[in-house]
Write a structure and sequence with these properties.
The protein is of the alpha+beta class. It is built from 3 helices and 5 strands. A hairpin with an 8-residue loop joins strand 4 (146-152) and strand 5. The relative contact order is 0.21.
Length: 190
């Protein structure tokens, strides 16, 4: 299926960013503070049996050794990008952030996540109507004082997730920020 389809297209040349089916048993892991974690729940999701390296798509690199980043490490790494104001990893299906970090006190990334999810869904519908069967690499919103970079997670383990990065335009190098976010996205292991 093309962009906006209901299932991951394993036969496509490139990964397709599409929502996971509602009836699927997969539940995306969440990073919660210990006080909010469910009793008896594991603190970290189990790793894929083969380390996540079975993806035949050329965009994914094997996730081994020092190149694996968990969610918390990924968010911290993204906040080290020059000009970073906030980062969230968002579930496309629910619009809920799986994890967030911000350097701005009054920045509510939960609200931003819901609005950004609607925006991403609308863009995917538009691409589908245009019959463009290409994956979204990233979406850029440029404001007077900020950049907002939206980057879908392309690995099978991150299916249906995307990063949202807010940057201070006066301090950020957009090309470098996009490059670093791409690296973080590719090294994320869920």
């Amino acid at each position: 299926m093309g962009v906006g389809g209901d299932r991951y297209d394993a036969d496509a040349q490139y990964p397709v960013f599409a929502p996971a089916p509602v009836d699927d048993e997969y539940v995306a892991p969440r990073v919660l503070p210990p006080a909010r974690a469910a009793p008896g729940a594991p603190s970290r999701p189990a790793a894929e049996p083969n380390g996540g390296s079975s993806n035949p798509h050329p965009i994914d690199r094997p996730r081994t050794g020092a190149h694996i980043m968990n969610l918390e490490a990924s968010l911290k790494e993204a906040m080290n990008i020059e000009g970073a104001m906030g980062i969230a990893l968002i579930d496309y299906n629910s619009g809920m952030p799986l994890g967030t970090l911000t350097s701005v006190n009054d920045l509510d990334l939960d609200i931003i996540a819901a609005g950004t999810t609607d925006f991403v869904r609308a863009k995917m519908r538009t691409l589908e109507l245009m019959r463009l069967d290409e994956p979204i690499e990233d979406i850029l919103v440029t404001l007077v004082s900020q950049y907002h970079v939206i980057r879908p997670v392309t690995s099978r383990s991150g299916k249906g997730l995307f990063f949202y990065l807010m940057l201070d335009k006066s301090r950020a190098n957009l090309a470098l920020a996009r490059h670093k976010l791409t690296r973080i996205e590719r090294e994320l292991e869920m």
